[in-house]
Amino acid sequence: MSRRKQESSSSEDSSPDSEEEERRRDIKERDEFAQRLKKKDEGRTRNVVESQGRKAYEEAAKRLKLEADDRDKLLPQLRKQSRRQYLEKRKDDKVAELEADIQDDEYLFDDSAITQREREDREHKKNLLRIAKEHEKARELERIQRYHMPKDIKKGDKEEYVEVDEREKMPNSEQKKWEAEQLASASYKFGSKDVRAKKDEYELLLDDTIDFVQAFRMDGSKEKDKKAPVTEAQKMKMDIEETKKSLPVYPFKEDLIAAIKEHQVLIIEGETGSGKTTQIPQYLYEAGFTNDGKKIGCTQPRRVAAMSVAARVAQEMSVKLGNEVGYSIRFEDCTSERTVIKYMTDGTLHREFLSEPDLGSYSVMIIDEAHERTLHTDILFGLVKDIARFRLDLKLLISSATLDADKFSAFFDDAPIFRIPGR
Hints:
The chain is of the alpha/beta class.
């Protein structure tokens, strides 16, 4: 009997320790499962927009490596090329400066008003300018590529230097000269070559011409100022602006922003097509809710809706999809560091809770299409309700298209309801 009591007492003492150990093991397994799930999703997610910070870092690392490896090899060649280019430019500048100096000297001072030393200095400058120009002409002659027939020079004979004709400096001069000779030999001309061309012996008699009083044109009465034609891009932008102003949510823009600033949780009720999904994130962006580096998130129950709405908002804001406006769905991420308005599915927001439980990178979170009451949406309601209680700076908007707004308001501690009438 005493033995049984001893065993039961020992089992009671060890039961709290075993429960604590089991709880720690469950927490460890849960964290490991979350890490495995996160790595698996990251491996299967296609990044549509590459990270600019990482790309810039890789390019900078390549440049540093190239500079460290080839510095001793490239610098001597670069110095030599730079010196040659500098001397070419300096030579032209100095010649132009010398020529301008001579012209100014001759224009300002007459020969009788200068001393002998100044006159010699002027002549010296002229000689330098003449030599520089002759040297440049000689360099131009050296650049001309032509073939000279070799001559059989006997001993004692000296080869005479002949200046090149100006016409031979032109490209293909030999071919043009040969073609001119062949064309002249093929044409027939009668008479002597030195006969002067016949001229008209009498002038042409013309009637009296009109003496115009004014030499300029007078402006007509026809209107010249016409409006420039509207381009397709301007026409599309005007259509977008008209569409935005025709939405039912547009007249309530200021009241909606004021209500969001006043209340942390707000229930927005409006019919489908009133502009809740596309316009409210733009209003928040214009009101400055993203100035502190945080984003505006908006959830959608379906993947196609998240992609199409993000593309429409990017078109209305005149930005590229993936920069300021992006979307994130399963197996596809079209966002970057510049993204301030992010559309995502409910499941994607669930995955973000694993890496960021407090949603610290978001200033506003919009749960759209709440009236559909999917499983993911109902789970999000409980999560965002807990976060809103300890993150007072987070604005939470629940968007619904039906009359269930009263139920949502009661669930979120009697949150106020903002109703948008239909068309």
